């Protein structure tokens, strides 16, 4: 490819995105520098559009590049009950087709990911803030799949050092789940194809070999037989995502590689043919190469081939073969080749749609037929007068009238003496590992007791209710621990309750449930302390609750704390909204933050500050209101304004930081409450007013050694 192709991409970006992306921060930037930044932002918009198809306008709105972007440039979030996905893009434009991506860029990008995972949203700029509620919704459906995209205007591969660093970073973040986070690289070829649309979709011609093939002639031509893992891995290696051009679940299959498929190929490849549903390919034409006898080996030349079902399987094969060729090479899979020659119009689309909309049978479906589950269902009805749903597709009762087999499995895993089962249940969206025979037997037992099951469900619900309430006042790691740690906290709380008669009908379980709120608060404090002490304050909370070894260590440390005479450790002020507010106020008692900043001349007149919601309730109440008018998030600083240094862009009136923050909350939601505005108003690239004032005081020796004990 050449500079000519770079020019095509540049023109497309200029035509489609430059007028749509936010450039308010580039007003005083030199023209050429601003143009390059706009091209990078346009590239970020195009990249996120490639991964998550949307209009040009929506793609442009997803760009938040600029000061405090934390090494990321654009984002797309898709919330789904089955699997939510988050796409994060870092873009590098280059007129010379040599977009650089250095090791420093890798560190910045993964640091941004860490901040997002730990819910440290206020570290991101105002253009990022509208996506926080979307991210939270994605988290609420379970641990999302995250794709980090390097959008690079270049053709050359990344340097060995950069590739090694990315691999190391991925190994760390994917400590529990290999597919939690992945990195993709989009280059000039991808962008050129994207701007050409369907016209650029590669027409793939390939030669394949089928073992034991059978031919169908009526009503349309088709072949099916067996292909080897090396052959399919080579096919994917050569053609990449272009192989899935017609697949309606292209993005899903490429980002959600099923770890079970890969494990089967690596651990028992000889069984893969029996376990796989196979692969379906559509072809414009199929021609036999040489002599081919049905039932034997046949070679076929395929024209215009596309995998329309089984993209997940193909990409898993490629990954498994790349990881361990020796183990995976013995794997084989059934492949169907369907020729579109002489087919009626739209037949290919019908094949694509129907082969991708059939519901697969899951292990859970088999367990619904287990005699123990049948008995549980009957006992719920006869003994508890409640409903117990065991089959997918059945209406799940409201909480007051029963539960599902899935909720019961989670509750029993959390309350099992084996803490590792809580980690197993937390590893994937549908707790699929719990339905494997060994785990299933340990969770439910040979004869599950209906009173234990229902009471454990009640406990899990009570714990989640209390954690949800606590999260309203928590930020950062504490918020993450309260969300991800629901099963872990339930496990610990259960072990602190009186449960020896939990299976007895007459047992007063309500008396034990009354202890839950206090126990949850103490358990959460000890859990977070244990995670920080055992694995450090920069470790991922999600790893501690999904990794079997880690969760056991955290449980042991937490129980030691609860069993001691020591009170539960107080959460860091950084983790609590109320304490952070108090700390900011305490800091200001000696010297008001605004007075400190003005006296030091720390902020230049005319500097534009931006507002960032601090707490979860604020984000929920204000996100949409702030997004409706960008001026609402901005204010200009003046050192001549006394205690009212902020001129709000929405009405040009002058306010104190706290007064303006309070007024904004009132206008957005009708909530009138005192807030510490210095925690919410930021100088881009430098920090909040509270952080800047505190730094000034430290430099001047005003507060060294004088901070409150809980600061």
- Helical residues, percent: 40-55%
N-end to C-end Cα span:
57 Å
What summary fits the major beta sheet?
Answer: 7 strands, mixed
Query: What is the 3D form?
Result: flat
Q: What is the mean pLDDT?
A: 86
Structure, described:
This protein has about 700 residues and is of the alpha+beta class. It has 31 helices and 19 strands. α21 packs across α24 (about 515-535). The longest helix has 22 residues, at about 450-470. The protein is flat. The relative contact order is 0.07. Mean pLDDT is about 85; it is low at about 250-255, about 585-590 and about 705-710.
Provide a quick synopsis of the model.
The protein is α+β, with helices and mostly antiparallel strands. It contains 31 helices and 19 strands.
Topology:
Layout: H1 3-16, H2 31-51, H3 56-61, E1 74-78, E2 85-92, H4 103-117, H5 132-140, E3 145-152, H6 160-173, E4 181-186, H7 188-196, E5 206-216, E6 222-228, H8 229-239, H9 250-255, H10 259-267, H11 272-275, E7 279-283, E8 285-289, E9 297-303, E10 306-309, H12 311-323, H13 325-328, E11 332-339, H14 347-356, H15 363-367, H16 371-383, E12 387-389, E13 402-404, H17 405-415, H18 420-426, H19 437-444, H20 450-471, H21 476-484, H22 486-496, H23 509-513, H24 516-535, H25 541-546, H26 548-563, H27 577-590, H28 593-600, E14 608-611, H29 616-628, E15 634-637, E16 646-648, E17 654-655, H30 657-669, E18 681-683, E19 687-688, H31 689-700
Parallel strand pairs: 2-3, 3-4, 7-11, 12-13
Antiparallel strand pairs: 1-2, 5-6, 5-9, 6-11, 7-10, 8-9, 14-15, 14-18, 15-16, 16-17, 18-19
Helix pairs in contact: 1-2, 1-7, 8-12, 10-12, 17-18, 17-20, 17-22, 18-26, 20-21, 20-22, 20-24, 21-22, 21-24, 22-24, 24-26, 28-31, 29-30
């Amino acid at each position: 490819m050449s500079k000519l192709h770079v020019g095509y991409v540049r023109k497309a970006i200029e035509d489609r995105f430059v007028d749509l992306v936010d450039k308010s921060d580039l007003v005083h930037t030199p023209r050429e520098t601003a143009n390059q930044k706009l091209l990078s932002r346009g590239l970020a918009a195009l990249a996120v559009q490639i991964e998550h198809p949307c209009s040009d306008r929506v793609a442009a709105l997803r760009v938040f590049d600029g000061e405090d972007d934390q090494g990321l440039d654009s984002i797309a979030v898709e919330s789904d009950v089955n699997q939510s996905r988050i796409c994060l893009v870092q873009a590098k434009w280059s007129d010379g087709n040599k977009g650089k991506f250095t090791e420093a860029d890798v560190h910045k990008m993964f640091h941004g990911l860490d901040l997002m995972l730990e819910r440290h949203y206020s570290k991101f700029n105002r253009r990022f803030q509208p996506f926080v509620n979307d991210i939270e919704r994605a988290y609420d459906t379970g641990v999302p799949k995250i794709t980090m995209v390097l959008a690079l205007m270049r053709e050359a591969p990344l340097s060995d050092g950069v590739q090694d660093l990315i691999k190391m970073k991925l190994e760390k973040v994917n400590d529990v789940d290999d597919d939690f986070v992945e990195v993709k690289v989009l280059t000039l070829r991808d962008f050129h194809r994207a701007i050409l649309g369907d016209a650029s979709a590669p027409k793939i011609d390939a030669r394949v070999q089928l073992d034991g093939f059978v031919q169908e002639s009526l009503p349309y031509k088709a072949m099916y037989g067996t292909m080897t893992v090396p052959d399919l891995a080579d096919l994917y290696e050569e053609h990449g995502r272009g192989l899935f051009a017609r697949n309606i679940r292209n993005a899903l299959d490429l980002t959600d590689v099923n770890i079970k498929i890969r494990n089967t190929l690596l651990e028992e490849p000889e069984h893969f043919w029996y376990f796989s549903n196979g692969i379906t390919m559509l072809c414009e034409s199929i021609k036999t190469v040489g002599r081919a006898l049905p039932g034997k080996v046949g070679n076929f030349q395929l024209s215009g081939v596309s995998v329309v079902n089984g993209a997940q399987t193909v990409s898993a094969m490629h990954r498994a073969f790349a990881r361990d060729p020796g183990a995976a090479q013995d794997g084989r899979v059934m492949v169907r080749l369907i020729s579109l020659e002489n087919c009626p119009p739209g037949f290919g689309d019908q094949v694509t749609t129907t082969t991708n909309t059939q519901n697969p049978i899951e292990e859970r479906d088999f367990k619904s037929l287990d005699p123990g589950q049948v008995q549980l269902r009957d006992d719920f009805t006869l003994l508890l007068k409640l409903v117990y749903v065991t089959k997918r597709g059945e209406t799940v009762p409201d909480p007051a009238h029963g539960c599902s087999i899935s909720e019961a499995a989670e509750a029993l895993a959390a309350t099992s003496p084996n803490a590792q089962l809580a980690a197993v249940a937390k590893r994937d969206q549908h707790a699929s590992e719990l339905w494997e025979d060994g785990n299933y037997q340990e969770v439910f037992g040979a004869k599950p007791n209906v009173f234990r099951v229902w009471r454990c469900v009640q406990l899990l619900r009570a714990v989640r209710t209390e954690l949800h309430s606590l999260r309203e006042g928590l930020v950062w790691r504490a918020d993450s621990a309260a969300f991800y740690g629901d099963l872990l906290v339930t496990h610990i709380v259960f072990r602190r309750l009186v449960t020896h008669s939990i299976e007895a009908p007459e047992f007063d379980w309500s008396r034990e449930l009354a202890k839950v709120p206090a126990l949850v608060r103490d358990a959460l404090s000890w859990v977070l302390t244990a995670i920080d002490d055992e694995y450090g304050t920069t470790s991922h909370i999600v790893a501690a609750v999904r990794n079997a070894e880690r969760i056991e260590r955290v449980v042991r440390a937490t129980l030691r704390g609860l069993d001691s005479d020591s009170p539960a450790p107080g959460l860091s002020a950084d983790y609590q909204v109320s304490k952070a507010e108090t700390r900011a106020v305490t800091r200001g008692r000696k010297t008001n933050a605004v007075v400190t900043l003005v006296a030091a001349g720390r902020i230049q007149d005319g500097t534009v500050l931006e507002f960032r919601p601090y707490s979860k309730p604020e984000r929920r109440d204000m996100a949409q209101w702030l997004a409706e008018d960008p001026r609402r998030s901005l204010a200009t600083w003046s050192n001549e304004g006394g205690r009212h240094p902020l001129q709000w862009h929405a009405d040009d009136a002058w306010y104190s930081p706290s007064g303006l923050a309070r007024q904004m909350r009132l206008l957005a939601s009708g909530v009138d409450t005192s807030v510490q505005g210095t925690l919410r108003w930021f100088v881009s690239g430098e920090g909040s007013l509270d952080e800047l004032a505190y730094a000034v005081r430290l430099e001047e020796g005003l507060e060294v050694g004088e901070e409150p004990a809980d600061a």
